[in-house]
Amino acid sequence: MNFTDDFESYLAALPRLGPDKPADIFLGNKYELNKDTDEKLISILSGGALEASFPYSFSLNPLNCYLLLYTEEGYGKLHFESNIYSLESNTLLFLKCDKKMKLEIAVSPWNYSVFFIKGEILNFYYDLLSQYGFPLYVLPEHSTIIRNIQKLSLGSTTGSIRNKLYDSRYLADIICDLLMESMEADNPETKVPAYLQEMKALFDIAYQENYTLDELEAHFSTSKYRLCREFRFHYGESPLQYLNGKRIEIARDLLLTTDYRVHEVGSLVGIDNTNHFIYLFKKETGMTPLSYKKKLPDITRKQFLPLYIK
Q1: Which residues lie across from 25 on neighbouring strands?
Q2: Which of 186, 205, 226 lies at the terminal end of a domain, its last residue?
Q3: Does the keyword DNA-binding apply (predicted)?
Q4: Helix spans in 156-238 (H)
Q5: CATH no. for residue 140?
Q6: Domain annotation covers residue 310
Q7: How do residues 111-143 score in pLDDT, each as one tens digit?
């Protein structure tokens, strides 16, 4: 499937759009194909971050791909198999496009990110997710899934192997996180307590802050020993290990997307002691921040806008 080929053949009816809108606006940006990766990785055919206003609707024929659609603001509707589904704020739709469907705006403006994707492993993921109901999910406000969708929206549409690897990684992370959250929510024995979810969300968003176990104990009104024990049980590592891992993950992206110096990156992620930052970074990645930065081709720097600077 290639969206550059005769777009009108994919339309079940003419779209309802304002006079200044191109007929294929719903597809977003078309992505270059790469014959060496497209059959091996999860690939994006078309997509991006869009803003829609009245009138706005699309009716599409069956397509040989999947649809990933995240609504940030506003409200859309999906007509699918004689049902109508609400695409409200913070909902994520993961849909197999093998049947006719119609998408339309309900509340303007409708700000959303959409991606048409393909890849053999998506069949496996979709079958698993289908066990947990229709593939429309409400995401927590600070979900890491939202951040990965933002990364995709800022990504390059060129066909380089590097770009394809980034796209595939973010898409796999999005779908695997969605699958794990669905599994945990369905199993009361493994369901993560609300206070642990809140603590993890705090680390994901406010990673640059300094925390002590005594402060966390007071904030969550739970023994610090219980906090550590239950956090490790549900997330596989201690709170501090998770927080430092998150900081290093953000630091890697900052080294890729900015020209900040090593000590500046450390401060931005909440580690003011440069030697300690270098130690943690090398422990996590196997190389120092400077070595990591030098190994990245200059052409990739500034390819994405920084996502994490507060």
Answers
A1: none
A2: 186
A3: yes
A4: 161-186, 194-205, 213-220, 224-235
A5: 2.60.120.280
A6: no
A7: 999 999 999 999 999 999 988 777 888 887 667
Indicate the pLDDT class of residue 310, thresholds 50, 70 and 90: very low
d(CA 186, CA 205): 26
**Same domain, residue pair 38 and 133:** yes
Q: Is residue 165 part of a domain?
A: yes
Last residue in a domain, options 149, 169, 186: 186
- Count the Cβ atoms, other than its own, within 10 Å of residue 270: 19
The answer as to whether 307 is a domain residue is: no
Lowest-pLDDT range, 75-79, 100-104, 214-218, 257-261? 257-261
Please give the DSSP secondary-structure letter assigned to residue 137.
E
Each as own residue / partner, the long-range contacts of residues 166-170 (CB below 8 Å, 24 or more positions apart, any chain) are: 167/31, 167/41, 167/42, 167/43, 167/44, 168/37, 168/41, 168/42, 168/43, 168/119
Long-range own/partner contacts, residues 283-289 (CB < 8 A, 24 or more apart): 284/244, 284/245, 284/248, 285/248, 285/252, 289/251, 289/255, 289/262, 289/265
Residue 162 DSSP label: H
216/132 same-domain check = no
What is the Cα–Cα distance from 78 to 112, expressed in whole angstroms? 13
Number of residues that this document lists for the chain: 310
- Backbone torsion region of residue 218, taken as left when φ is above 0, otherwise alpha when ψ lies between -120 and 50, otherwise beta: alpha
Residue span of the structural domain in which 275 resides: 194-300
274 Rama sector, left if φ>0, alpha if ψ -120 to 50, beta otherwise: alpha
This prediction has a pTM of: 0.65
Domain count along the chain: 2
pLDDT of 21-78, one tens digit each?
888 899 999 999 999 998 899 999 999 999 999 999 999 999 999 999 999 999 999 9
CA atoms within 13 A on the CB side of 252: 14
| 109 contacts: CB under 8 Å, gap ≥ 6 | 51, 52, 53, 73, 74
Which pLDDT score is estimated for 138? 84
